[in-house]
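Ligand: magnesium ion. Inputs:
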Amino acid sequence: MMRSYKIGVIKGDGIGPEIVDEAIKVLDAVASVEQINFDYEEFLLGGAAIDETGVPLPEETIQGVKKVDAVLFGAIGGPKWDTLERHLRPESGLLGLRKAMGTFANLRPATVYDELINASTLKPEVVKGVDIMVVRELTGGIYFGQPREYGEEKAYNTMVYTRPEVERIAKVAFEIAMKRDKRVCSVDKANVLEVSQFWRDIVEEVHRDYPEVELSHMYVDNAAMQLIRDPKQFDVILTGNIFGDILSDAASMLSGSIGLLPSASTGEGVGLFEPIHGSAPDIAGQGIANPIATIASASMMLRYALGEESAADRIDTAIKKALAEGYRTQDIAAFDAKEVVSTSEMGSIIADYAAK
Ligand SMILES: NC(=O)c1ccc[n+]([C@@H]2O[C@H](COP(=O)([O-])OP(=O)(O)OC[C@H]3O[C@@H](n4cnc5c(N)ncnc54)[C@H](O)[C@@H]3O)[C@@H](O)[C@H]2O)c1
Ligand SMILES: CC(C)[C@H](C(=O)O)[C@@H](O)C(=O)O
Ligand SMILES: [Mg+2]
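Predicted complex:
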């Protein structure tokens, strides 16, 4: 029987529209062979929303995304809006949207494709088989803490975590670990920050309900080093908002390009599925962005939000096949390429494989 889903689409700025178009191409390809019907509804966010409505997060977007089954998002931001006041910049729209949607758990898998093993900045033997899940708290911490101020003589932000915020993200990490290798490494800065000691204590408490999971703690500076030294030591990394932001970009180089890593932001209601990278203004409009991170985010959307495992498997297999056949976008062109392709050619190749 035909299954129908309503997908909210936020293309955003810079390369956002280019990469989201390719993910939709791939979704439509799997829909045709999987008895699925997707209805897409576009919403504005970020710079595109500022240009159209004067604000980065229009009310129609906040209301609209509550009425869909899942949201696929590209990226926002760019130099065009950098002179605006902070609360009016594109990035504030994304933070506001995450908060409004209650997507407190950002899952950022850092996996290394065997087909692309030479693209990693690390030696093949160090990265072969890397399969890390970064569980990043997304709606708290220093990004949202009050008070905050930009003044003439000083500026400050506040890193706050409440007990329920830490409990719920820790639960997500332990639940995910139960389905994986049952190891959680919680990353913090408890040697310096009270908020991190608090985080650590609550993670320990939640851990009591998951005795099968091995829990370790690591300071964030060491974690950054260990990710590059021996990434295979990690299974699930549980961490706060800002540390997760930084560590996940670092982890992308294990795979070879930030254009490869997807994410799922889940929590209280509708989920938001987005690549971990930004709007890449330096390459926007050139047709050279790697769409794989966004296509893989669409796959996460099928798997986590819609329960369409078989369609998600099709996409994941199609991505691997395109890489195995030697198709490469510019960012990974130096690594075992048989043919260097554009953003839209990569999308079409993956769509074709996904529909077979
Ligand atoms: N989720 C988001 O919307 C998001 C995430 C990060 C940054 N940003 C915003 O994006 C803008 C640019 O930020 P930045 O330059 O620090 O980070 P960025 O991730 O946009 O780009 C960093 C580097 O990676 C490259 N890159 C990124 N995605 C790529 C892809 N798919 N294919 C090939 N190369 C890719 C870029 O060309 C650039 O050299 C800023 O306004 C920033 O605030 C938005
Ligand atoms: C654009 C910015 C607000 C965002 C973040 O820091 O969360 C981005 O870097 C990300 O990783 O999604
Ligand atoms: Mg980031």
